[in-house]
């Protein structure tokens, strides 16, 4: 359940990646320490929380076949976080 700040599922300890970081500001340091797999998890956990309709086998296996409103539409805070994660994925050469 989200707390209004986009931290519902994303704040829980889930899977092998331990917990979703979902932080702002000082989060760059925490994100810089994550593997590509953990960054992928961080990014997609935010989308999962927002009901995104995943299409890849890996994402469905990790987050389930959830698909509900708002269908992946992110809040401004969530979008900033996803952008930060994507920037780290690019820096690390993640695919």
Instruction: Please state the CA-atom Rg, rounded to the nearest Å.
Output: 12 Å
Instruction: Assign an overall shape.
Output: globular
Q: What is the typical, i.e. mean, pLDDT?
A: 79
The helicity comes to 40-55%
Question: Helix count, per DSSP?
Answer: 4
Question: How much of the sequence is in beta strands?
Answer: under 5%
Structural class: mainly alpha
Order of helices and strands: HHHH
Low-confidence stretches: 1-18
Q: Could you give the count of β-strands?
A: 0
First CA to last CA: what distance? 30 Å
**Largest β sheet strand count, sense and barrel closure:** none
Summarize the structure.
This protein has 95 residues and is an all-alpha fold. The chain has helices at residues 27-32, 36-49, 57-63, 76-91.
Describe the structure.
The chain is mainly alpha-helical and 95 residues long. It is built from 4 helices and no strands. Helix 2 runs antiparallel to helix 4 (76-91). The protein is globular, with a radius of gyration of 12 Å. The protein starts with 26 loop residues before the first helix and ends with a helix. The relative contact order is 0.19. The model is unreliable at 1-18 (pLDDT under 50).
What are the salient characteristics of this protein?
mainly alpha; 95 residues; disordered N terminus; 4 helices; single chain
């Amino acid at each position: 359940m989200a707390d209004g700040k986009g931290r519902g599922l994303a704040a829980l300890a889930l899977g092998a990646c331990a917990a979703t970081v979902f932080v702002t500001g000082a989060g760059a340091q925490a994100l810089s320490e994550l593997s590509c797999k953990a960054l992928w998890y961080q990014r997609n956990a935010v989308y999962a929380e927002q009901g995104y309709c995943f299409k890849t086998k890996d994402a469905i296996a990790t987050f389930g076949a959830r698909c509900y409103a708002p269908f992946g539409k992110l809040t401004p805070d969530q979008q900033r976080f996803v952008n930060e994660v994507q920037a780290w994925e690019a820096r690390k050469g993640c695919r």
